[in-house]
Q: What sequence folds into this?
């Protein structure tokens, strides 16, 4: 058993969760098109990619089931596992020898970077985790940032203002320096999950990954950037983010819509390292793997923070319709009339990008959109149970918002039973014996 992406692919293969594609495929649209068709189904390994020796994987963590395999858990215990890893985060071991040192290149065209969507400006690396030093705290930071290839030495790099990579970049710029970084592509998905989690300032997400991997993660220090990166990564890139250059880019985001054209910082290549028989990982923006990777760690975070404020919180779901980013359903065992409003406030506080929160009782399945709408239809009155928070900081992604100033209007819906109404009015009527009855005994 290895604790890298190859070990995870072996597990998927054994569980019948991996489809191997031998047909020759193009990095331009074709890999993206096949991946979009299997969304919500199997992981894909493309073995024969035109003009490259690299193989390509996609849809790695594209279902909750595979997400559970990635964190060594079961679907119902994902939040508990992630919350525990955050709590017990521990330092990975440093080893001198790294598998990715087997090969080197100084040309970004070595990599099979995928062109995904019709109107994007070029090929994007979408599974890239960036490692940099937090200068204030002296720790290392990991974050997902997508990279648009400009030429053989440069990427433009999408940074969300105020997030940790952006803060370290601004710090470097203010000190008249470029920011040295390392980038990994093709790691065990537990590392990607930790990288997608927004840990507190100064906390190293790789320590969470180490815990998710039962303390088996090893890191190796790089010669140029001095970053410690997963030793068993398929590909590592080193370089610097230039303090004084920008490039216009726009890409498809989690909402599967085109972002507006942004001037983004430019990365300059120092060196690429990669393993023998390397595998490149591509994540199709706006599809299952992307939304699960970004959304599930946030779900766990909201769950953890809500339970502090409101121990009667039962479950938290970021909905698929809300792209696992903008809409949440919170299930509570309501004890006081004020509980739902408390839940709404705490949920918005835990995830700044959120736009819509619906609170339901514990007899409503928060992952079932029909059940949630039923709760709204039967337990919600817009004049008393609706919370509107106008023009506050929201997600940079939502095209209906004021995207330049990052302002949006948020909505909280209390769809729980009111204590001041007759309780049978909310009781979902049962038919004695219906639960256990088998129709096979009646209809042949
Ligand atoms: C660029 C982002 C997500 C993605 O499409 O992968 C992050 C957006 O973060 P906000 O804080 O919601 O702007």
A:
């Amino acid at each position: 058993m290895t604790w890298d992406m190859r070990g995870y692919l072996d597990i998927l293969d054994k569980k019948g969760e991996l489809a191997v594609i031998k047909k020759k495929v193009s990095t331009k649209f074709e890999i993206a098109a096949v991946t979009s068709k299997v969304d919500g189904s199997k992981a894909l390994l493309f073995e024969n990619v035109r003009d490259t020796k690299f193989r390509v994987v996609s849809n790695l963590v594209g279902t909750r089931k595979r997400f559970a395999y990635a964190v060594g858990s079961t679907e119902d215990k994902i939040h508990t596992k992630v919350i525990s890893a955050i709590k017990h985060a521990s330092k990975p071991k440093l080893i001198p020898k790294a598998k990715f040192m087997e090969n080197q290149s100084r040309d970004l065209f070595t990599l099979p970077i995928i062109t995904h969507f019709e109107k994007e400006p070029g090929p994007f690396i979408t599974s890239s985790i960036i490692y940099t030093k937090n200068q204030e705290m002296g720790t290392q930071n990991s974050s997902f940032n997508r990279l648009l290839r400009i030429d053989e030495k440069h990427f433009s790099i999408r940074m969300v203002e105020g997030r940790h990579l952006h803060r370290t970049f601004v710090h470097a710029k203010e000190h008249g320096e470029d920011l040295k970084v390392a980038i990994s592509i093709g790691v065990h998905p537990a590392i990607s999950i930790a990288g997608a989690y927004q840990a507190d300032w100064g906390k190293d997400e790789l320590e969470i990954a180490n815990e998710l991997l039962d303390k088996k993660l090893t890191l190796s220090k790089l010669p140029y950037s001095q970053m410690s990166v997963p030793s068993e990564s398929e590909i590592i890139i080193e370089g610097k983010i230039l303090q004084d250059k920008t490039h216009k880019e726009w890409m498809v985001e989690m909402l599967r819509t085109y972002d507006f054209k942004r001037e983004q910082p430019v990365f300059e290549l120092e060196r690429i390292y990669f393993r023998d028989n390397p595998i490149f990982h591509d994540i199709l923006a706006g599809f299952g793997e992307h939304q699960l990777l970004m959304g599930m760690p946030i779900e766990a975070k909201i769950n953890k923070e809500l339970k502090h404020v409101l121990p009667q919180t039962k479950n938290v779901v970021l909905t698929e319709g809300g792209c696992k980013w903008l809409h949440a359903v919170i299930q509570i065992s309501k004890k006081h009339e004020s509980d739902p409003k408390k839940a709404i406030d705490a949920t918005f506080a835990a995830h700044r990008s959120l736009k819509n929160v619906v609170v339901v009782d514990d007899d409503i399945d928060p992952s079932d959109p029909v059940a949630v709408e039923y709760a709204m239809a039967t337990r919600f009155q817009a004049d008393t149970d609706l919370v509107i928070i106008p023009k506050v900081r929201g997600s940079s992604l939502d095209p209906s918002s004021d995207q330049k100033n990052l302002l949006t209007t948020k909505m909280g819906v209390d769809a729980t039973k009111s204590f001041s109404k007759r309780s049978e009015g909310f009781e979902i009527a049962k038919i004695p014996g219906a639960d256990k009855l088998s129709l096979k005994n009646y209809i042949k």
